[in-house]
TrEMBL record:
Protein name: Replication initiation protein RepC
NCBIfam families referenced in this protein's UniProt entry, alphabetically: RepABC_RepC
Family annotation (InterPro entries): RepABC_RepC (IPR047611), RepC_C (IPR021760), RepC_N (IPR005090), WH_DNA-bd_sf (IPR036390)
Sequence ranges assigned to domain Plasmid replication protein C C-terminal in this UniProt record: 323-423
Organism of origin: Roseibium aggregatum
Superkingdom as given in the UniProt entry: Bacteria
UniProt domain Plasmid replication protein C N-terminal: residue ranges: 11-181
Species classification: Bacteria, Pseudomonadati, Pseudomonadota, Alphaproteobacteria, Hyphomicrobiales
Amino acid sequence: MPAVSNVSSFRKVTPGILASQRLAMSNDIPDIGKSEVAIALKRAAQPIGLTSTAYHVLDILLGLSKPDDWKGDNRPVVAISNEKLASYVGKSERTVIRAIKQLVEARILAYRDSSTGRRWVHRNDSGDITFAYGLDFTPARVRYREIKRLADEWQAHLNAVREAKRTVMRISRAIVDIVDATKDVDLTDFLDQMAGTLDAEIDVQAKAQALLDLYDLVMEALKEASNTQSTAHKNGDSSCEDDINVTPIFNTNSPDSCSNKRTSAHADEIKNKTNVAYGAEIAPEREQAERGGGSNRGYTLQKGSGKADFVRSETLDAVSISLLESACTSIQGDFGLSLKSWPDLIAATDVLRIGIGLSEKGFTEACGRLGRHVAAAILAMVAEKALRDPEKISSPGGYFRACCERATEGKLALAKSLFGLAAR
């Protein structure tokens, strides 16, 4: 079919119409089929700025065009009257005429008018178009790559906005959880800043970035407060002024009483005491009265050194059962567990232990060193990470032991890990 594109004299020519006519007369037509162009046009309808009526007209015209007319360097032309097209769309003829003009000025269609204004297509015996007057889709074929790029950019924008909305929801919930879980440090100012960010007249992506920055500030404040408390515990006196609500357990046995190899008439009694001491050492820690009455943190004392006891209580700083529940969503869904309370977490340890391939002895030793609640919280965190990123953690059992070693040394940031899981 010859590259002819005529505009009747009754039309008012605009720069957009002239641009479409030039594209329609182009001889450099990419070999792009109907389906590819149709998908690109529909995906790019919103960034192009098509109205609902224009989109409806475009959909009908694409359906009327034949796939063979889109092959090679052919020029697909659709011949349909405005009256019939208006009946298909359910609009008036003037509305359809305006919709077609919008498609032409968007450089999707081009006018191919006859001298009388009628539209028809003449084909030869093989079905190829010889002469055609109507609406030409050649501009859309020529601009296929540009239209596809617009569609991809628009889809990327939609994905970014959707992810930003999720980030705003996750981070705001995480900040609220941190403030609620931290009783010894006043972090209410961060809640006011978060409320101001949420109410600000900015786009959602800017809100997400502002909340991420605020979350980093909250974590820095929490870490600084934790370091201050740690220094105070290490450098403070040994008075019991702040330990009124804590019931200490004193070890009255001699340090050598369990390792003395001398025999006596009461050797069997000494041996039994040794076994009892060893059993108490590996058993889960006894729950003591909580500091401050209603605090959720696990401040506990157990037979052994005071330093080890502080390490165990420090690990659960800023860790509440609600934080564990919001952070460990995968293990709850995959294993069918409930983490509504600490007893629920303790009851789930056997399932979690088997799930990560940890032996009963390994978990029992962790309970003896750190306490039952600390070991259970670490176990839940490790199982959650193993489910989310199985390729990153090749040996969950070894990872659990490594976390317990760091907790013993006071270097495990369990709260930070849980807040990170909750925010993802």
